[in-house]
Amino acid sequence: MSQLSRRPADAVVGRALVHESAAQHVTGHALYTDDLVVRTPRALHAHPVCSPHAHARITRLDPAPALAVPGVVRVLTADDVPGTNDAGVKHDEPLFPEIAMFVGHAVCWVLGETLEAARLGAAAVEVDYEPLPAVVSLAEAIEAESFQGGRPVIARGDVEAGLAGAAHVFSGVTEMAGQEHFYLETHASLALVDEGGQVFVQSSTQHPSETQEIVAHVLGLASHHVTVQCLRMGGGFGGKEMQPHGFAAVAALGAVLTGRPVRLRLSRTHDMTMTGKRHGFHAQWRVGFDDDGRLAALEATLTSDGGWSLDLSEPVLARALCHVDNAYWIPHVRLQGRVAHTHKTSQTAFRGFGGPQGMLVIEDVLGRCAPLLGIDPVELRRRNFYVEGQATPYGQPVRHPERAAGAWEQVLTTGDVLRRRAEVAAFNAAHPHRKRGLAVTPVKFGISFNFTAFNQAGALVHVYKDGSVLINHGGTEMGQGLHTKMLQVAATTLGVPLGKVRVAPTRTDKVPNTSATAASSSADLNGGAVKDACEQVLSRLREVDAGRGLAWEELVREAYFSRVQLWAAGFYRTEGIHWDSTVMRGHPFKYFAYGVAAAEVEVDGFTGAHRTRRVDIVHDVGDSLSPLVDIGQVEGGFAQGVGWLTLEDLRWDETDGPARGRLTTQSASTYKLPSIGELPDELNVALLEHAHEDGAVYGSKAVGEPPLMLAFAVREALREAAAAFGPEGTSVELASPATPEAIFWAVERARRGGAGHVVEGLPGAVPDRPDPAAPALHPRSEQAAQAAGEA
Amino acid sequence: MPDPQVTVNGLPRPLAGVPAHTNALDFVRGLGLTGAKEGCAEGECGACAVLVARPDGDGSRWAPVNACLVPALALDGQEVVTAEGLGSPEALHPVQSGLAEVGGSQCGYCTPGFVCSLAAEYYRPDRVPGPDGFDVHAIGGNLCRCTGYRPIRDAGRALGAPATDDPLLARQDRPAPPPVATRAEGFARPADLADALALLAEHPEATVVAGSTDWGVEANLRGRRAAYVVAVDRVPELREVTRGDRGIEIGSALTLSEVEAALGDEVPLLAQVWPQFASRLIRNGATIGGNLATASPIGDLAPALLALEARLVLASADGEREVGLADFFTGYRETVLRPAELIRAIRVPTPLSARTTFRKIAKRRFDDISSVAVAVALDVTDGTVVRARIGLGGVAATPLRAIATEAALEGRSWDADTVEAASAVLAGEGTPIDDQRASAAYRSAMLGNALRAWWAEDWAGESAGEGSP
């Protein structure tokens, strides 16, 4: 067992503690960025002027009428930018654009004494546009060959030979929609400038260091002139990894130019129309199986809908390609990826970061092909699991595949799945208008940033003379319980009661050069850094103690008077990982997180409405740092996945009318996320036992993203229920999201015995080939480094 | 007339000078009470929920409402409690400690709103403490993006009984604050109906609001500003339910929650509508008159009231007139209401049809807007349909009666063949459109399946029952 993962007796980690801010949450005392405005005298309010066109050149922009509106203080335009007019790390996101690239694109911002004044001012700004042709849908982009960025390929073996030698070959298309983050707290920033010209931005950001870098390069300042703080976020889910930077920069620019605090908070409509979402994907595939249903070969081309700029589309695509295999061994593989360029919001990180989209492809393939192979989907999936000694298509050995198998067996047992499947069959035989389905699906999800450099973290631990401890670390709190876990890590390492430790808000002037709180890795990375800092202090204290066994307060006091340093900066980097993005091979992940879900649903054949009757989950979080937090992440991730797959329905106006490119589901009344009614009647969640992860902090594993993909069980159960309306062996093609309407049409097709669009036999549709001359995929961070260097 | 003020967490707070368009959420946040959050600004997420003392018989009831939709001035004379008023981190309210202990908060942003909804449930006089007494619809209007709801539901199921000396429980034994008349810049609350009608005659351009659940959305999301607001939600003459020879007369300014409580199971079709109508938070604000006056083509109440052949009593300074609901809607969001005229009451004729059904098709089970709504009222005598009334929502610019389908049913024997024939007619009713909620084809298919599903479930023996989609 490694030093990092070994847990002492009576560890504070492993205890089921409530969220460290729970008492503040339930009383309304927890502060979020926009709550600070009422405490900030003389703050100005920012309101955008948004493009009504999906693609248009701005031929004239006259702010003068806005300045005539009472209460309007200033209009911010491109002319005001002292540094670089760009909100991204790839220099393809002008903060104040000359060409509007999507409906909702902010062309300038108005500052007012009140939000009402700023809003009226924004309405008064005169902008002339010259509309340009717009590519709106993924299908249009593929047709027009409108792509951006690299075209990565992951390949192993000989796909053509594999397909040629397979007993059964099928081809098809799988499409899936994106997803709006719908963090309950919309984007918010509050910027002010102190007497020394230091710019202080409070931002709802998952990536304070990058927010700091962007603010600095917009203002033309060095990073040490800018401090970014994040108290906490009202949800992030990836939507605040890249997207907050521009808003923070606008607030900071306003503060610098007016000398007054500037508050920028997006309305829900602005947030939905202006900020990026989960990428929708289109996948074209050919798959081969042997006589026993074992995967022989898979060829697929995945095209993601990147929106107007690259943002994180390339690394999202890389992770998608790295997860097409999910938990399954596929000997011959060729996976090709490309990012469509469309005139929509710039799609971005969202919990799972492409993993869900990649995995949905293979789950869709298996769900559609199982009936055609005449193999029970539960058996088909289990039969294809990785076993020890096998490696992923990108060359990483699959460690601990027995954990997926163990979780699978546990779900089948505790969920009483086989008996209940018989009950489902009996129910279906007796009910012509209602059908049930019970499906089981696995999750294997790689943990670490694909880009190796991001796998580092820092922490700052202060022990004060009275023995109290204050920790800072580079991660941000967005509800995932990171701060709770870090308190537990610090208390465990120092061997002090939890009450001795407090965590301070995340600030770039405390811990610099941090990675985004993303990729599920924050407890691993920051936990390692906090532990390192605590151990440094502890080792000095041990010398002071010299085996006397002094009480903590006494020891600390004595150490101070002995002039021993009572604080330390900790650092952690993940060892043993590497990735070559030019050939898409390596060992990018520290480990895999596993999980299995079984879901039973009932579908109403008259309407397509469904209800989830029961869900059983076993999920692998290693040795849990904080079980209540982890179970909350598993359940919440599952629910968010269910929302993506069954309910949340992003629609853009794809007509040629004047509203072309407009998001038609731009509010909570038209974009529906799961509410209490989507909670399964029965939900049983267990954490996999005996799951110690050697080499991770206190034997734990990451938990943020992997559980989202447990929701595939619900989608596959819906497919099976829909199939039950048709003759035995019906293969059902199910749209994603599987809304009641989509399920209704699937039921109608099943009733007609239609096999969907799966084509049997080799010819089928040939997946699109990527352009061999296209550049290799560049991970976000290479550009980040480049941008930082230029700033 | 005294200056307007509202009691927030026990402290009087002046409302003088607050603009008419400022909503209660921005007002309380401006006081530094930032527990209530803006999540959507249209009454969909519940993050802004606060408790308001509302009349309930001789006493009062803590009713949670969406603060984002209510004009702050409409709180004149009211008592409001926010999450901060329930407890503090040092002294948590039982609802707060219960929610915290089970892991009911993650990011915490939606949490104060859930706390207010759960607190209202906690103090609901007819609640039986314990898992089965918890009405899950109490939190149907609160969205959480983090937890997946299981711990929040568990917190609701674990709610105990309030202590007998609980001050908020004791508050419910006393009457709610009496209505006050308000006059402010651009805003007026009339003292009674005569005052209301006089105000409207004086300000024919006025926007009439009650719960403001529709106007609040217009103001927040589309920046609409009223030239003048007349708030009628506490006009006594608009808040009565009476029963007589002509049926049941329901005052237009009763909230949907109040109508629901007043009618109980008296009108079974409406009893079917309530759990499917928006959320408790909305039904505590929205009024029956406001729901009809706003003339949404997809409102759920209008189809039901069309099937019930409801009539509206319209009042103005010039007197009263009565119109059938089917004649009330004249076009998309247009009605026969004249300037300075308001709906005084809704009359539901009795006796009621014996068999009724309300079928709502939406993407989400709770708190969603209909793609299609179908309400049916049927009288079957000796196996023959003697009377059929069908109201439809979501399939035209206005709610409408399915006249052709009614004709295809009346006089026929009520059997599977008739259901099939009538379903074919029903599928062709209206002029449904494709939009983000549903395709036209799906809407038509749902019309066609409404009677089939009812037949299968309630007549042919395939019971839907609890646990069905």
Automatic annotation (TrEMBL), chain A:
Pfam family, one: MoCoBD_2
Residue span of region Disordered: 760-791
Protein name in UniProt: Dehydrogenase
Gene3D superfamilies linked: Aldehyde oxidase/xanthine dehydrogenase, a/b hammerhead (3.90.1170.50), Aldehyde oxidase/xanthine dehydrogenase, molybdopterin binding domain (3.30.365.10)
Domain of life: Bacteria
Recorded coiled-coil stretches: none
Positions of the Aldehyde oxidase/xanthine dehydrogenase a/b hammerhead domain: 27-133
InterPro entries found in the cross-reference section: Ald_Oxase/Xan_DH_a/b, Ald_Oxase/Xan_DH_a/b_sf, Ald_Oxase/xanthine_DH-like, AldOxase/xan_DH_MoCoBD1, AldOxase/xan_DH_MoCoBD2, AldOxase/xan_DH_Mopterin-bd_sf, Xanthine_DH_Mopterin-bd_su
Automatic annotation (TrEMBL), chain B:
Domain 2Fe-2S ferredoxin-type span(s) in chain numbering: 4-86
Keyword terms: FAD, Flavoprotein, Iron, Metal-binding, Oxidoreductase
Highest taxon above the source species: Bacteria
Gene3D superfamilies: 3.10.20.30, 3.30.465.10, [2Fe-2S]-binding domain (1.10.150.120), CO dehydrogenase flavoprotein, C-terminal domain (3.30.390.50), Uridine Diphospho-n-acetylenolpyruvylglucosamine Reductase, domain 2 (3.30.43.10)
UniProt xrefs under InterPro entries: 2Fe-2S-bd, 2Fe-2S-bd_dom_sf, 2Fe-2S_ferredoxin-like_sf, 2Fe-2S_ferredoxin-type, 2Fe2S_fd_BS, Beta-grasp_dom_sf, CO_DH_flav_C, CO_DH_flav_C_dom_sf
Residues covered by region (Disordered): 161-181
Protein name: Dehydrogenase
Pfam families, alphabetized: CO_deh_flav_C, FAD_binding_5, Fer2, Fer2_2
Domain FAD-binding PCMH-type stretches: 173-353
Keyword Phosphoprotein: no
Cited CDD domains: fer2
